[in-house]
From TrEMBL:
The lineage of its organism: Bacteria, Pseudomonadati, Pseudomonadota, Alphaproteobacteria, Sphingomonadales. PROSITE patterns: FAD_PCMH (PS51387). The keyword Oxidoreductase applies. It comes from the Bacteria. This is FAD-linked oxidase C-terminal domain-containing protein. It comes from Novosphingobium rhizovicinum. Keywords: FAD, Flavoprotein, Oxidoreductase. Residues 50-228 form the FAD-binding PCMH-type domain. Its cofactor is FAD. InterPro entries: FAD-bd_oxidored_4_C (IPR004113), FAD-bd_PCMH (IPR016166), FAD-bd_PCMH-like_sf (IPR036318), FAD-bd_PCMH_sub2 (IPR016169), FAD-linked_Oxase-like_C (IPR016164), FAD-linked_OxidoTrans_Type4 (IPR051914), Oxid_FAD_bind_N (IPR006094), Vanillyl_alc_oxidase_C-sub2 (IPR016171).
Length: 497
């Protein structure tokens, strides 16, 4: 695969020993890793098709250490790549040969829980699921639940604006984060938001959530926790056609019903998941919907009837309703395990992430089938049907010459298709390096320049996670240039600041 990254700075690499000594003075003990064998676990994130060993790894334990590391690197022109648990699927934590990789895995304490305020204050290395585990005794939970929630960190969730099966009703990470502490590239420590709702002024918190490590390093997160609903029941609905399942999704949402979760799998994914977890998924259907409804018991009963009625209208051939909490959890166990389960179908797979309008779902799935035939590669579909967030899993064998390149080309065509259908390049995995060179498919040159100006406001030297998100990285001075024609400024009537 051909992936262009910023050209390594030979001068910085030549100072590697000096940099390691300086950073060991800030983070003593085992806080700096520089042995080649010990660097190997950090050479990629969850997008393992791209690999690059970092120059050094630094593992701070306090905000003060993060601030000092960033300030030193800023003063000495050394690039820094932040990393959480490394579960990112877009290459957002891909190291650089001339950069320090800043691992936040030691920030793993729950700092405060307030059930009265319904918040938890945690460090960024706390895993997503650990937040729910910390509050479930009192009947609370943290709503966003990515499939990797057992491993992914809340800091990484903030960087990527992660989602999950229950985000249809309860929102993505950005809807569940109230405040953060962050460190800028020059070492300055900032607090955005807090324990309260809707802070005044510019929405800098909203800007930081989903910024993919380009603007700052998060060292503390205040999240919203919710009381568990009185009742939660899930339906397994099988369809003989993918089109029927897609039409059912559109009508359920169009009728005003917002399920807690609404997931869809096609035949290859159904068979892989059932063989993996054996929860009783129907194997004689082409599409399976998992629809969860929660709230007061009477409301759930009514909405289940409505969803069943809509499903029958669109050709449902089987329906199964959970009768216990254990059965409901089993329904979701298959969906949560779908990604690893698909590993049974091929030696490798490439997990994509794009979003489309729900009504275009049948058309998009048909076009993906055509692309599968064109590239000669299988595809299994597992996705958040309720909000149109697709996760096609392209099956290939990296040991066969050319298959990895075909998988990449197939994935790029899927993402172009999402944009063509009125959707976007990503739903929750971020841009990273995977979608970086496709950004012009969605944004104009002017759009991208404005986005890079924000980057310049936070990191004028372009030292923090360079080579990600933007297909062409301009120097900040270039973005600040103004075109002057015949001695006349554009829009002379506007005041200049």
């Amino acid at each position: 695969m051909t992936l262009r990254m910023p050209e390594p700075d030979a001068g910085v690499i030549g100072r590697r020993a000096e940099i390691a000594r300086a950073l060991r003075a800030i983070v003593p003990g085992e806080g700096v890793i520089d042995h080649p064998d010990e660097l190997r676990p950090y050479e990629s994130d969850g997008l393992t098709a791209y690999r690059q060993a970092p120059m050094l790894v630094v593992l701070p334990e306090t905000t003060e250490q993060v601030s000092a590391v960033l300030a030193w690197c800023h003063a000495h022109g050394v690039k820094v790549v932040p990393r959480g648990s490394g579960t990112s699927l877009s290459g957002g934590a891909l190291p650089l040969a001339d950069a320090v990789l800043l691992g936040m895995g030691k920030f793993k304490r729950v700092l405060d829980i307030s059930y009265e305020d319904r918040i938890a204050v945690v460090q960024p290395g706390v895993t997503n699921l650990a937040i729910t585990r910390a509050v479930e005794e009192r009947g609370f939970y943290y709503a966003p639940d990515p499939s990797s929630q057992i491993a992914c960190s809340i800091g990484g969730n903030v960087a990527e604006n992660s989602g999950g099966v229950h985000c249809l009703k309860y929102g993505l990470t950005t809807n569940n984060v109230l405040g953060i502490e962050m460190v800028l590239m020059d070492g300055e420590v900032l607090r955005l938001g807090g324990r309260h709702l809707d802070p005044a002024g510019l929405d800098l918190l909203g800007l930081m959530v989903g910024s993919e490590g380009l603007l700052g390093v998060v060292t503390e997160v205040t999240v919203r926790i919710l009381p568990k609903p009185e009742t939660a029941r899930a339906l397994l609905i099988g369809f003989s056609t993918v089109v029927g399942a897609g039409e059912c999704v559109a009508e359920v949402i169009g009728s005003g019903i917002i399920p807690a979760g609404m997931e869809m799998m096609d035949r290859p994914a159904i068979h892989a998941a059932e063989a993996f977890v054996q929860v009783g998924y129907p194997l004689d259907v082409d599409a399976l919907l998992i629809v969860e409804l929660d709230g007061p018991s009477a409301e759930c009963d009514h909405l289940i009837e409505e969803v069943e009625r809509i499903a029958q209208k669109h050709g449902a051939v089987s329906t199964r309703i959970s009768r216990s909490e254990e059965e409901r959890a089993a329904f979701w166990a298959g969906r949560k395990a779908a990604f690893p389960a698909v590993g049974r179908l091929a030696p490798d797979y490439y997990c994509m992430d794009g979003t489309i309008p729900r009504r275009r779902l049948p058309e998009v799935l048909d076009r993906m089938r055509q692309l599968s035939e064109h590239y000669g590669l299988g595809v299994a579909n597992v996705f958040h049907a309720g909000d149109g967030n697709l996760h096609p899993l392209i099956l290939y064998d990296a040991n066969k010459p050319g298959e990895l390149d075909r998988a990449e080309a197939f994935g790029n065509d899927i993402l172009r298709l999402c944009v063509e259908m009125g959707g976007v390049l990503t739903g929750e995995h971020g841009v990273g390096v995977e979608k970086r060179d496709l950004m012009p498919e969605m944004y104009s040159e002017v759009d991208l320049a404005h986005q890079q100006r924000i980057k310049c406001a936070f990191d004028p030297e372009q030292l923090l996670n360079p080579g990600k998100v933007f297909p062409t990285l301009h120097r900040c001075a270039e973005l600040g240039r103004m075109h002057v024609h015949a001695g006349n400024l554009p829009f002379p009537e506007l005041p200049r600041f």
